[in-house]
Specification:
Elements: H1 15-34, E1 47-54, E2 60-67, H2 74-82, H3 84-94, E3 102-107, H4 110-121, H5 125-132
Parallel strand pairs: 2-3
Antiparallel strand pairs: 1-2
Helix pairs in contact: 1-3
Length: about 140
Amino acid sequence: MSRPPRRKNAEGPSQRQLRVAEEIRHVLAMLFERGDFRDPGLAGARITVTEVRASPDLKHMTAFVSGLGKNVPPEQFKALQRAAPFLRHEVAKAVRLRYAPDIHFQPDTALDYAMHISTVMLNNPVVQADLAKPAEEEPEA
């Protein structure tokens, strides 16, 4: 029995990418919780790993990080990028993969975007008027 052909234009990440990315997110979260960093820029840093996205070949991981309810300060973000080789080594010890993935850090802007929608978009008079319409006026599909 032959295998089905591989999808060239997959619509999203594969199950393996999602599973490996989530495992790496857990390892990074554990490392940040322990706080075993030599870099003084990360001393006492409260960093949360909100999401990790894996490349299709699993050689690159993009970790989205934030502080506790706020952005990571620029000096801590630079220190985090300096600590990437150490974190790569620790991830390679904890997760069995063929290659130790390069870890790239990005600030997580999802909270900022949600706040923007909440404060700016939902307070727009046009949106408020649409939200205030009774359910009877909505057309049925």
